[in-house]
Design a protein that fits this description.
233 residues; binds S-adenosylmethionine; alpha/beta; globular; Rossmann fold; 2 domains; four-stranded antiparallel sheet; 11 strands
Length: 233
Amino acid sequence: MFTKTAKHYDAVYSGKDYADESKQLASLIRKWVPEAKTLLDVACGTGRHLEHLAQNSGFDCTGVDLDHEMLAIARERVPAAIFYAGDMCDFALDVEYDVVACLFSSIGYARTVERMNRAVANMASHVLSGGILVVEPWITPESWIVGKIHSSTVETDEFVVTRMMVAEPVERGRVVFEYMIGGSNGISRVSETHEMGWFTHLEYVSAFKKAGLTTEHIQPGLTGRGLYIGRKS
Ligand SMILES: C[S@@+](CC[C@H](N)C(=O)[O-])C[C@H]1O[C@@H](n2cnc3c(N)ncnc32)[C@H](O)[C@@H]1O
């Protein structure tokens, strides 16, 4: 996870247009659940979507994430939202929401089909009748290219981060990130291993069906990876 680099996460993903994604998501929600008011973002990270969904779209927002460092940043960013620490597979909030979302491929952290089924069922159990579960999937098996390297460099007033990422040859995907972080104290190096799992279209559809949701897969979704939208009857 991003525990060691949480304070650099927003800079690393500064090219991602959270404002536009949140606007698209809000308009999609208005189509599916016109009266929607409450929204839960599972694996909310540093709260970048929630910031816009709360401030610009007027949702009552809640976030869940496993990582306390990410949550600390989210709490500061979106004081109007409520945040809880929890695992997508078994968090239990005792509240149901009009919309539950799991964005930016965070579902990949479920890693195995069995855990992805549990995560979808658990998230669905937090959806109000008539509400929706929205999951933005991770990459497809076809686009998992072992050994593929990505790299990026970002500069802020405080630090420079260069990150390289390699896709490792484990069954459903392990991603290793190597960071070089330069600041006023010099340059440090940080390694992170993200144990993840890609899932097939049929595996997602089956998980939604088992969770009792009527499902649609829409393309291109918010970022080109599509979206699974399941309605609870
Ligand atoms: C790629 S980041 C996405 C964060 C945020 N949704 C965004 O769009 O920036 C993945 C997030 O999933 C969280 N995460 C990983 N495993 C998790 C789990 N089992 N349950 C809940 N959150 C998890 C990480 O801590 C991280 O914040």
